[in-house]
Write a structure and sequence with these properties.
The chain is α/β, with parallel strands linked by helices and 481 residues long. It has 21 helices and 10 strands. Helix 1 runs parallel beside helix 4 and helix 13 crosses helix 14.
Length: 481
């Protein structure tokens, strides 16, 4: 089992309840009955007996009840954002549960029918990902959702770019779903045999969980070791046995030779956090471009990044938030999984879609807040906090953006954000006036291009510029980096 804080073979049923976030025995009874897991509701006395709260042998009495309990705890864990019985580790968790004192019988292992009976109960069908991708999916942070909303055109565009370019960068501000889209596009590229196989690497140091809290990712390579570890990972993933013992330039050259004569897909998620990311990007792009051959025969590189990397020889594919229609569908899907008895109204979902600008990360957290509190005020609070830039999650999403800028760029960015309060665009002349009024020492063109490269500014036709509304709200709200 990959998460050491989860129950194991010595854990009691109460431990499993705690890991799922169970608040009361009554909650277990109601969830099991509401979702049709138990045709006849369990009683308080049964739960108490299984927990060992009453005289007699504790633990679940048979496999049928155990399977029902696993399905119930899976619902509760998902509602609470817990990792228990998640898809990737479901079999491991379930078999540990059956072998633990949570069961008073010898549990054995689940059959395939029992597994899919549990996983299919909540209209959350088995993932459409091919079997070969499951091991790779464990390395993706955050894990890509089982269903992607509103990205059909973007996914098609990504695969098309991979067909025509040796290197593509998915670019967007924090929380826009670059990782999820990158995963789906990469899997499609391999499934459709654009590439033979793929490898996934990330330099993410933390992610934002369902509650809007920062969660550090263990085991991420150090900055200095990332590139070398990535090349060694390629050798292991693609079974290049003659490459595994190579070091230094020899390792780079051997990997480049393999990539230039093969059709592999190398994905680097969160490129902007890699130390010397420009050097890494350029070198990796050079390694996949074949010498004297058509680019169509070569391997491919896919980056996800919060800043544009086209200058390194990539095709930048910029993505923004989901449409209102896709956002509302995603919100309803999330809430249905956590609290099917308390759906969002159409008006609430639409209001959140507008407030979040369709940012998938913020949509996820907004839906979670509703599922936790079930109070109409939480919708209004979220909308107000996002529109004013005072939401804590905005800081977590966009602090890294400010940290990545040069010293004067944030000053320029905040002036532009203030100018964009009433209208979401400025002209080139207004931009120059703001620059002069601030008395900045850095060159105007350099600062402007830096903000464009980091997705703070977006050029429009006619010499005008616009600012991402969530970035503007964050800057106006006092984001300090």
């Amino acid at each position: 089992m990959s998460h050491h804080n989860l129950p194991g073979k010595q854990s009691l049923l109460a431990d499993w309840f705690s890991a799922a976030g169970v608040e009361s025995n009554r909650e277990v009874i109601e969830v099991a009955h509401t979702h049709g897991i138990t045709p006849v509701p369990w009683s308080e006395a049964q739960i108490a007996a299984w927990l060992g709260e009453t005289p007699g042998r504790p633990g679940l009495p048979n496999l049928t009840v155990a399977v029902q309990m696993i399905a119930t705890l899976r619902f509760i864990a998902r509602r609470n954002g817990k990792l228990l019985f998640n898809r990737e580790d479901f079999i491991d968790h379930a078999n540990l549960f059956l072998a633990s004192p949570a069961c008073s019988f010898y549990g054995g292992t689940l059959t395939d029918d029992q597994v899919w009976d549990i996983l299919g109960r909540d209209d959350d069908q088995p993932p459409s990902f091919p079997v070969w991708s499951f091991e790779l999916r464990r390395r993706v942070y955050p894990r890509p959702p089982d269903k992607l909303f509103g990205r059909t055109d973007a996914q098609r565009a990504l695969v098309s770019c991979l067909e025509s370019s040796p290197a593509v960068a998915l670019v967007g501000v924090g929380g826009e779903g670059k990782t999820a889209l990158g995963w789906y596009g990469a899997v499609q590229a391999v499934t459709e045999q654009l590439c033979y196989d793929m490898a996934w690497f990330t330099d993410k140091r933390y992610l934002i969980d369902l509650h809007g809290k920062r969660v550090d990712i263990p085991g991420t390579p150090s900055d200095q070791a990332f590139f070398e570890e990535m090349l060694r990972g390629l050798a292991v993933r693609f079974r290049w046995s003659d490459v595994m013992g190579a070091v230094g330039d020899n390792l780079i050259n051997k990997c480049a030779d393999r990539l230039r004569v093969g059709r592999y897909l190398v994905v680097v998620d969160n490129l902007e956090t890699v130390e010397a990311s420009a050097t890494v990007a350029r070198q990796l792009v050079e390694m996949v471009v074949p010498h004297g051959l058509k680019a169509g025969l070569a391997s491919r590189v896919l980056f996800t990044s919060r800043q544009q990397v086209g200058q390194y020889g990539c095709t930048d594919l910029l993505i923004s938030g989901l449409s209102v229609e896709a956002s509302t569908a995603y919100l309803h899907h999330l809430v249905a999984g956590w609290r099917p008895d308390h759906p969002l109204s159409a008006g609430q979902a639409t209001a959140l879609a507008h407030a979040t600008k369709g940012n998938p990360q913020l949509l996820l957290i907004a839906a979670r807040r509703w599922a936790q509190r079930l109070d109409h005020a939480v919708i209004d609070e979220t909308i107000t906090a996002l529109s004013s830039g005072r939401d804590d999650v905005l800081g977590m999403l966009f602090d890294p953006l400010i940290e990545a800028l040069s010293a004067e760029a944030p000053v320029f960015a905040r002036l532009i954000a203030q100018a964009c309060v009433n209208r979401m665009e400025v002209s080139g002349h207004e931009l120059a006036d703001l620059y002069r009024a601030a008395g900045l020492a850095g060159k105007f063109d350099h600062l402007t291009n830096e903000l464009i490269d980091h997705c703070v500014l977006s050029p429009l036709n006619g010499g005008r510029y616009t600012m991402h509304p969530l970035v503007r709200a964050y800057l106006v709200g006092g984001g300090e980096g």
